[in-house]
Structures are given as C-alpha cells and as structure tokens.
Amino acid sequence: MGKVLVISTSLRAKSNSDILTKKLIEGAKASGHDVEHISLKGKNISFCIGCLACQNTQRCIIKDDAVEIAEKVKNADTLVFATPIYYYEMSGQMKTLLDRLNPLYPSDYKFRNVYMLSVAAEDEEFVPEKAISGLQGWVDCFGKAEFSGSLFCGGIGDMGEASGKKEELSEAYEFGKTLK
Fold it and tell me: pLDDT tens, 117-128?
C-alpha cells in the first residue's frame, strides 16, 4: 500500500473534521497504508506573495511551516485534506496552504490521488461543491495527479458533535479504507 498524508485544516478545538479524520486514518491503516497526519493547528503559514521564485528553485522564499509541509506533500503517494466548510467553501487556512504548495508544481512530486473530507453544519448535498471545486482546481494543475473522491458529513455543527455521530464515523472509517 501507499504513503498517505492527511492534512487537517481546522483550527477549532474539538473539531468535528478532526474527529472524523481520526476515523478516516483508522480505516486507511486497516487497509495497510502508512499514514502521516498533520494538523494546521499552531502552524505558522503566511500568504503566498506571488513572486514565483519557487518556479525556478522549487522552494519558497518564505521560511515558515509551509516549507516542511510542502516537502511532506511532495513525497506522499496519496493526499487527504480535511476541512470544515465555511460559507460554502474550504477553510481559509486550507486555501492558504494550497497556494503555498506552488513550489511543487515544477517538481517531481509523488502524489497521484487527492481526496477531501469535509464537515458542515448545513446538510444539503450542494454544501461542499465549491470546496471540492477549489481543490479540483488545485489538483488540475498537477498533471500526474487526480481528484479521487470526497466524503461530506453535513448536519454537524456544535464543537465535538461528530464524536456522537455513529453513521458518519463509520462512513469516515470506510472512506479511509478505500484510499488508493
């Protein structure tokens, strides 16, 4: 099996996306994957300044936690981004990280499959569409990679509420087992 990197982008204490991410990781490990988990909580990630120096050097000129995360992303076979849905979109910290992964574009990155786990208080089917579209747009820039799937768990809003959602916890576990 492969090396899976799971990136949790919620900064909230007792995050519902983190609770479901733990189940996803259990499922991925049960399928034989080597899983590494990174949380953006406590990370210092500055905004991309658009200098594009990274396109020549494959390294960002900004020295913060995004540099180390980018190296881990580059060397993973499979990526999973876990995000809360804010205003029908991925979290701002996830978007900031995606922008900062720009040095990977010209590199010999290993990842081939990219997934998303998203959670929102709203439960309608359309809720994660813009977040998925945003991640799909990022993936489209990497010709060797593909957006391989997503799991949306809606109707979960209160802090820590996901821990009592048996169906969604089971879905997250099963989703983890299906990762390529």
Answer: 999 999 999 999
pTM, 2 dp: 0.96
Question: In what side-by-side order are the strands of the sheet with 34-39?
Answer: 34-39, 3-8, 78-84, 113-120, 146-154
Question: Residue 43 CB: number of other CB atoms within 10 A?
Answer: 16
Q: What are phi and psi of 119, to 5 degrees?
A: -140, 140
72-83 residues labelled b (16+ CB within 10 A) or e (exposed): ebbebbbbbbbb
Residue 143: CB partners within 8 Å, gap ≥ 6? none
Q: How many C-beta atoms surround the C-beta of residue 97 within 10 A? A: 25
Q: pLDDT tens across 45-93, in order?
A: 999 999 999 999 999 999 999 999 999 999 999 999 999 999 999 999 9
* Residue 48 to residue 95: CA distance in whole angstroms: 10
Interatomic CA distance for residues 25 and 165, integer angstroms: 17
CA-nearest of 11, 41, 17, 10 to 118 is: 17
CA 66 – CA 33 distance, rounded (Å): 24
In angstroms, the CA 138 to CA 93 distance is 15
